[in-house]
Amino acid sequence: MGRGRVQLKQIENKISRQVTFSKRRTGLRKKAHEISVLCDAQVALIVFNSKGKLFEFSSESSMEDILERYERQAHIGQLVGDGDESERSWSLQCFKLAGKVEVLERNLRNFVGQDLDPLNLRELQSLEHQLDTAIKRIRTRKNQVMNESISDLQKKAKDLQEKNGKLSKKIKEKGKEVAERANCRQELLGLTSLAEFQTQQRPVPSLPLGETFQAGPLQEEAIEARTVPSDAITLNVPPWMLHHFTR
């Protein structure tokens, strides 16, 4: 025999009424959470008991977000209540876009580690997986950029080494040219000095007694240049040697 329909009415017993309130409130909260997860819906639950105590549940990070959205939607409904279908369509589109913006903002806060309390275990695991995937992509891109930078630096270093080698080679060639020119100058100066020295130190040929020296034109000029006038020479000869010259 099936159960009959229970008539809904206030429970007279206060203790039974409080127990029933606690059980139904827990079940209502559970159902609200399930519909928010399964249907991706935004749910706000506000309950006051007989003593005025507040019990609330929000599928979002805060109850204020849902209440503000409710107020905007109610205001839009009042504005477009008497309008045509196109205005309602635009309002609905605006409402949807505003909802997407709110979802994106919530996801952004979750990615930076904020407002994680409303998330359940499954949502936290999904968020962790997304962050791990993002970190792997970032590390891959970072390694790629580092390798490209290292390759560029190695290429620049190689070019600088080649330029340095070319400059060193040119410096060595210039140094050899300068050394060769200096050696040539020293050799020329040495030959000139030797010729002058030999010319100055050339001896006058000796003649036998009774013969006269027949000098050539150049020798005559040299002799004339070296001959001292007789009047410019003063001989101081002792008297005892004069008899040798008078004989």
UniProtKB/TrEMBL annotation:
Transmembrane segments: none
Domain spans labelled MADS-box: 1-61
Gene Ontology terms for molecular function: DNA binding
Compartments, as annotated in UniProt: Nucleus
Occurrences of domain K-box (ranges): 87-177
Keywords: Coiled coil, DNA-binding, Nucleus, Transcription, Transcription regulation
Keyword Transcription assigned: yes
Domain of life: Eukaryota
Alphabetized Gene3D superfamilies for the sequence: Transcription factor, MADS-box (3.40.1810.10)
UniProt xrefs under InterPro entries: MADS-box/MEF2_TF, MEF2-like_N, TF_Kbox, TF_MADSbox, TF_MADSbox_sf
A Pfam family of this chain: K-box
Coiled coil: 124-177
Record's GO cellular component terms: nucleus
Protein name in UniProt: Uncharacterized protein
Species this protein is from: Flemingia macrophylla
